[in-house]
Hints:
- It contains one helix and five strands; from the N terminus they run ββαβββ.
- The chain is mainly beta.
Amino acid sequence: MDPPRTAWRIDHLDVVDVRCWTRVSLDLPDGLVVVCGPNGSGKTSLVEAIVLATMGVSPRTPQLGELVRHGREALRVAADVHDPTRSPSGARREIGFAPGLGRRLM
């Protein structure tokens, strides 16, 4: 028996200037993805970027300016979301934020 499948998944994630990440681009396979590494390596920041791209908010702080990498002016997160129950081709969710300018869903 096959395991139950979720309604949607993220196929690709782009993160720019979010917390400790300068730039990361990940192709995510279907199924379980495990992120592991030492403390302070950015695991939680990747999860935070996923929530930001899909929900438009941070699960850790209401102040999105705290997510912008130190010394940078803005952040950007994009996720290619695939929902086979709605569209076989999927959709791109993207958000940018610059302190003083506010958030912008793209």
